[in-house]
DNA sequence: ACCGCGTGTGGTAACGTTCTCAGAAGTTGC
DNA sequence: GCAACTTCTGAGAACGTTACCACACGCGGT
């Protein structure tokens, strides 16, 4: 009858006393394991209800060794790629009875390490990580070595030996670049977002196996290079623009590009936030898209269609990427060990109005003069 | 020397053995409480490092009664309002040593109840909840009654007796409506996103104290009504459009509005996803903005400036709302009980190009004819 | 009448930490 | 030289659950 002394939170012994059975029996009735007669089962349930019993997940996790919790470590939840992927993750996790602890790293390796530490202390059952660009990766391999299941999202860390789900970046970037080339562009720039400029050196050009075995930004840069080389176009270092991952970083980078003596006639941006920066800069500089500059971006953000002009994009199956990462992780947690593998989903090129032949503006002027 | 039998995870007794001290001493050295001689302290630390000891947060939480974890229950992480607020929450939480468990409800009260249940089992230290629109709220009051600190985000639940942080919705909506009226609009519609149409009945018109004491959608509707009544304009029920909270719901609602015999010349949308739907529908219908229809939306999404035309919006201090909610919650968890109160932050009207005088299209035509 | 078996039940040991208490060792004060 | 105090240490309880073992009971088969 009397609840435990502390703040009125009923425990199994309390329920057992109230129902007149042993703790073991009450625990079996409430936990749904072992065997309990229907009569006592009912009695225990009633006692639990009247006492407002709530199972203590901590104690349960202590003994079962599983928390039914996943740790998710992302760069920045405000990026459409990440919040859509997160939606895929949380949905799948919930449908299989798991919760999600979220952490942002802002591409900071030390924040990432810190996040991993607290998640390990919390004894999460597994991790979904989008590793920060660059920096030391020791903490990642340490975590993997400790036996905690991990799945990498969007980016790959060679040699880590874990599952990874992401886009077939090299191919998608090559397709995107080809699209621009087919429109007649030869001066094509990329806005990569990485911290150091990604220079596709000639020596990398024909390294076999680099496809899919590299991290996102370099893989996309490689795809860009593939298409350029394939078309016999010149790779200009000044067209390989890397700033930060923020909108204004991309805007600044775009302004630099446009102030070149030979500015590019087309820009390929590596994610939707960067694309936003490119558009903003063009608008500020008074350059018209696609008349003066064609723009092609990664990620089909929800606003891509409404922007001016409607944006041509490489759509990633983002929700599916998140969902698949989660499924893979849960299967590994519950099932056991397959060999880790990379899952590269295909991108889809969606052409809207931001890509066109170069020099359209001139044509329009010509048309105007002709009247 | 020998680690515990199970999967090679060292525990405090393991560390103690290795350092040649008792468990109690090792625990003190590692936990930084009680008093330990500098010499043994060092020895224990070394032992912990060589064994790769990781504290078990579950066991710690069991005994201390605190998990340093917050539960966050939102409608939809893909909505800019929510992911920006979430960013404010996670940042503040992390800076004060707390983690965050995230749950989406999709405005479904039963999912919300389910989420609350698992969060309670996980023994989170507090909750930040954006309650689902409508539905039974028993689970919320039960949770509050159980003594778990809670802060409401964006929406208010009268009588719940908890802190709440959000926008001064009524005032912001009134300001927004007034802006449209000043442009000369008289046929102004709202796209609210609620499930049932929000009809500001005449009886509510002058109820004192409704300001701030009501949930978001009705509060904004009330602000709209305030401004309309103030200007002596007619409130037409067919201009009060409520569908779902998704983009396509708003698009459908907009199409209905535009097919009225007397369509509105201005639309006020209650969040950025809805605004997107409105713009999309206008584009599909071939209506030009602001020439045919002015659009004003809540929330200054990152794309608002780049959309065509650049969007006039009511900006909410979203990050601050999330951050403040988290601060309030943590203060209550750590500090103790102030009286719960409502915190209403001011919105800011940002006019860009999507709002103009009605009938601009006619003017342009006239100008064209004049040449 | 005995054994074997399945079902229901209770006692109790874990899980890994912190907390409480008691005592040992060293230090100070008279 | 003894009491009083501080600093350090260790043994063991506690948190709330599940896992494990033992036992009582009823039942059918040899």
What would you say this structure looks like, in words?
The structure is a homodimer of 371-residue chains. The first copy, chain A, has 371 residues and is α/β, with parallel strands linked by helices. Chain A folds into 3 domains: 12-55, lambda repressor-like DNA-binding domains (434 Repressor (Amino-terminal Domain)), CATH 1.10.260; 66-166 and 319-346, Rossmann fold; 169-315 and 349-367, 3-Layer(aba) Sandwich (Rossmann fold), CATH 3.40.50. In chain A, 43% of the residues lie in helices and 14% in strands. Chain A is built from 13 helices and 12 strands. The first copy, chain A, has helices at residues 12-19, 23-31, 38-51, 57-64, 80-95, 109-121, 138-145, 169-182, 216-230, 247-258, 272-285, 318-334, 360-370, and strands spanning 69-74, 99-104, 126-129, 150-153, 163-167, 188-191, 240-241, 266-269, 294-298, 312-315, 342-345, 348-350. Chain A has a 6-stranded parallel sheet with strand order 2-1-3-4-5-11, sandwiched between helices. Chain A has a 6-stranded mixed sheet with strand order 7-6-8-9-10-12, sandwiched between helices. In chain A, α1 (12-19) crosses α2, α1 (12-19) crosses α3 and α10 packs across α11 (272-285). The longest helix of chain A has 17 residues, at 318-334. At the A-B interface, α4, α5, β2, α6 and α11 of A face α4, α5, β2, α6 and α11 of B. The structure holds a DNA duplex (30 and 30 nucleotides).
């Amino acid at each position: 009858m009397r609840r435990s002394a502390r703040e009125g939170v009923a425990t199994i012994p309390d329920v057992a006393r109230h129902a007149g059975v042993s703790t073991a029996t009450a625990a079996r009735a409430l936990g749904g394991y072992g065997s309990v007669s229907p009569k006592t089962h009912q009695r225990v349930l009633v006692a639990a209800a009247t006492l407002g019993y709530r199972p203590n997940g901590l104690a349960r996790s202590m003994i079962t060794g599983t928390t039914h919790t996943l740790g998710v470590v992302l760069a920045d939840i405000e990026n459409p790629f990440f919040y859509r992927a997160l939606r895929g993750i949380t949905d799948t996790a919930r449908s299989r009875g798991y919760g999600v602890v979220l952490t942002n790293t802002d591409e900071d390796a030390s924040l990432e390490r810190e996040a991993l530490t607290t998640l390990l202390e919390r004894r999460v059952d597994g991790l979904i990580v989008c590793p920060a660009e660059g920096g030391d990766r020791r903490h990642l391999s340490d975590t993997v070595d400790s036996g905690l299941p991990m799945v990498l999202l969007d980016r790959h860390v060679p040699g880590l030996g874990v599952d990874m789900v992401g886009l077939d970046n090299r191919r998608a970037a090559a397709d995107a670049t080809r699209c621009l080339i087919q429109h007649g562009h030869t001066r094509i720039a990329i806005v990569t977002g990485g911290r150091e400029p990604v220079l596709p050196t000639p020596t990398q050009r024909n390294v076999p196996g680099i496809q899919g075995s590299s991290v996102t930004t370099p893989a996309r840069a490689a795809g860009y290079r593939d298409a350029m080389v394939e078309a016999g176009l010149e790779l200009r270092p000044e067209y390989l623009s890397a700033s930060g991952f923020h909108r204004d970083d991309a805007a600044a980078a775009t302004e630099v590009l446009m102030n070149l003596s030979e500015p590019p006639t087309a820009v390929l941006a590596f994610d939707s936030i960067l694309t936003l920066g490119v558009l903003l800069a063009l608008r500020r500089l008074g350059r018209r898209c696609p008349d003066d500059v064609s723009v092609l971006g990664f990620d089909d953000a929800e606003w891509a269609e409404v922007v001016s002009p409607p944006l041509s994009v490489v759509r990633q199956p983002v929700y599916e990427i998140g969902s698949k990462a989660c499924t893979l992780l849960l299967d590994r947690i519950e099932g056991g060990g397959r060999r880790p593998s990379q899952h590269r989903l295909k991108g889809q090129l969606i052409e809207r109005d931001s890509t066109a032949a170069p020099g359209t503006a001139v044509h329009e002027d010509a048309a105007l003069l002709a009247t």
